[in-house]
Design a protein that fits this description.
By secondary structure, this protein is an all-alpha fold. The protein has six helices and no strands.
């Protein structure tokens, strides 16, 4: 992964951590308000709910407001990816000859990696329904 993208994603995770912290405060204060309600202490419960409201507003701000928000961090990741994708690139015509030529020059590691992927892919179909007529017709197409 390119370092620039990795750094943006780390920043995004940090912003998400801030949101998580704020939500944890909300949950804690809601629990404390519930405890106070059970004890019949309405004033203390009200104060805890007001504090929870404050933390919920912080959460909304952390999610959505300004260049220090999670939304902006997410935008920066998306913008970086979009700036790196060659949207106007010419289409590439991949042929079987290209695939075979690449396979013939593969390293031993690449060969083993390919075999592992192929075996895993093959295994994923073991418990699936098998349509004998379809596959027989498919096989006849190679005769």
């Amino acid at each position: 992964m390119p370092t620039a993208l990795y750094d943006l994603i780390l920043d995004e995770y940090a912003k998400l951590g801030t949101v998580t912290d704020s939500l944890t405060h909300v949950a804690t204060r809601m629990g404390m308000a519930g405890d106070q309600l059970v004890l019949g202490n309405m004033a203390a419960a009200g104060n805890e709910l007001l504090t929870a409201e404050t933390w919920l507003n912080y959460t909304i701000e952390d999610l959505t407001s300004g260049t220090d928000s999670y939304r902006y961090a997410e935008y920066r990741v998306d913008a970086w990816i979009n700036s790196m994708v060659p949207w106007d690139a010419d289409p590439y015509d991949l042929t079987m000859a290209d695939i075979l030529a690449t396979m013939l020059t593969a390293t031993p590691y690449e060969i083993m990696y390919y075999i592992g992927l192929l075996d895993a892919y093959r295994q994923s179909g073991w418990n699936k329904e098998f349509n004998e007529e379809f596959f027989a017709a498919l096989a006849r197409g190679f005769e």
